[in-house]
Amino acid sequence: MAFFASGGVSPETPALTLGEALAILAVESRVADGNHGQTFAGPVEGYLQGLRERAQTLRSPENLAAIFNAVPAQRCEIEKTFLAENENFFLAYFLASASSANGGSACWNLFKHLNDCFECFEEFSNVMQNYYHKFQELSNRSAGT
Amino acid sequence: MKQFTFPELLACCCEPLSSDWERGWREFSARYNKFIHNKVAQRCRTWDFPRLRRQFTEVVQDIAGVVYITLCKNDCQALRSFTARADERVFFGWLATVCARATNRYLQRLLMEMLMDEENEAVSKALRRLDAADRWEFYEMVVVELRNAAKRKTDNRERDIHIFQLSMFSDFSEGLVRSHPCLQTLGYRVVQLVIHRLRKILHQRRKNFI
Prior knowledge:
The complex is a heterodimer.
Chain A: E1 2-3, E2 16-17, H1 18-30, H2 42-58, H3 61-69, H4 87-95, H5 105-116, H6 118-142
Antiparallel strand pairs in A: 1-2
Chain B: H1 6-13, H2 21-45, H3 50-54, H4 56-81, H5 88-117, H6 120-129, H7 132-148, H8 157-169, H9 174-178, H10 190-204
Helix pairs in contact in B: 1-2, 2-4, 2-5, 4-5, 5-10, 7-8, 8-10
């Protein structure tokens, strides 16, 4: 999943994957002044702002519960996998407290589904890796390393 | 001596008590041995990993042997099941499928051995080289084996399988695993212990796939 800067933006503007965007938002929420140390051109910042607003909406217990309960009990159909382009899922899991949600069942459901569904596993791994590397980069930058 | 026709050849290869049985298999081998080796080698080349590359010729020989065993075992059950005896071209297609299946099973076993014994990085690299369908099938095979193993009282089996698959299939480091939104409270070294324990489980279950 990636948001590509387009339409009048300089070709040097980097594409931002969902994982990277989540890392930026995660660092923002941990840093007092919300400054994650990077600035982005219009469309990319617009994408981030959209995610921020969506994350706020999703934080309500009802919305989070709906997302956590939507994880399929079986493997997905090949044509449409659950995690494909499912930004709300990643916003909920990465930015809300997934580990304590629904008495822990949110995570158990996720483990079970990713073990059942290879396509969702690959999707999740890709987002996770992009998230982690961006998070490390921003954390190192703010630590001055 | 006159060669058997195709239907005659299959018929006498399926009759061990026939006086033509040995001659039939010699002729079968003369006709199809190269085809079998080529099909197996072709399939092996799509599974590119170091252990296979080092022993490529031996592996192809082994698998070709497995193909012959598959055709002969249980009173030639597989060969008898091929019914389109009027057309040898159809037989080539059928035989190619037998070769592909035998190759896949053999290479899955090799990969399982890698999974049990080798460094995560080497395993991940080998798995990344597979085509998507083979990777998928192998992923599911690993999950099935780990799920079917006996459970302990304090079992976090689904969590542990997920950690194992992240480490093997996606080469997740311990730090990466612990940044997972559902695994952030994992204790130090838990990831290594989980991988070690699940490898042990696969070792205990190796008779299922070796």
